[in-house]
What does this fold into?
Amino acid sequence: MTLLRLGIGALLSLCMAAASGAASPPALASAPVGSELEAMSRALQRAHAAVVGVRALAVENARSNAVLGRTREGSGVVIGNDGLVLTIGYLILEADQVQLELDDDRIVPARVLAYDVATGFGLLQALTPLRLAAVPLGSAATMAPKEPLMIASGGEDGAVSVARLVSRRAFVGYWEYRIDGALFTSPPRTDHSGAGLFNSHGELMGIGSLYVADTLGTVDGPRIPGNMFVPVDLLKPVLDELRRDGRSRASHRAWIGINAIELEGQVRVLRVNDDSPADAAGVQPGDSIVSIDGTAIAALDALWQSLWSGGAPEREVTLEIRRGAEMKTLKVQTVDRMQTLRRAEGI
It folds into this structure.
């Protein structure tokens, strides 16, 4: 609790300094005093109370266990008064059992309600009452540069700290993942998985996904380490769909099963998943992808977007690759990513 008081106290102090001109977010015209500070403090306390620990055990033969491990721990945020919890999807990917850890030492069972490939979000439904108030969802569009923010994690080692927004931009992941408007904050937290990012009014702005070495994303600028948060703006348009179907329509998209990076103006394969379409087609680590279906590829962003927008999730695509000094043409039979995920028996 000491860390909680320090974190919220520091955030309130930063808000006052910013509003008085020290680090001026334009949204705050005058320093909050008296009742305004009390309201902020209550909102932040409620926000922290809504952050819970998440413990998940994946099915024994899950493909994701090779990278994520079978046992996973992180956080989630209560966004519905019916026990709906928002977390980062990889924590509950192919999960067999999920438990929520509350501040009063209660352990509450939960079921996976949704896993969304397109956004990276996961939804959990508590199976017994949480007795926790839901937090309101904010919007990254209202965030000001260098606005002070609160990061809160849950579970036994849950903590809060103050961070600032460094940049907001598209994020392209090496594992066939891309989102618009990702939030990059600093300083970094190691307990970022599923952590909540809140503004000074206790509104949820994003869910923690990654540690990143460079939050600015510039070629020649300084490298500022921090975290990437998936913005809740991506959740709002698909929330009803996720609750109803367990995924968004955009999650039904082509998957070939590679990890790749941009290197010296080329897209190079780092890893090929066992028994994946790329594996079956003969793609190898070290290959450089030159084109897909005749479209030249020089950036990872272009590769993923061409793969997803080129037709049905299950189809044949043509990859032209460079392997050493040799050029090769490979036919890859893509699959629907959602159909590759294993589920617990009975789900």
Notes: The CA atoms of residues 5 and 138 lie 23 Å apart. The chain is about 20% helix and 35% strand.
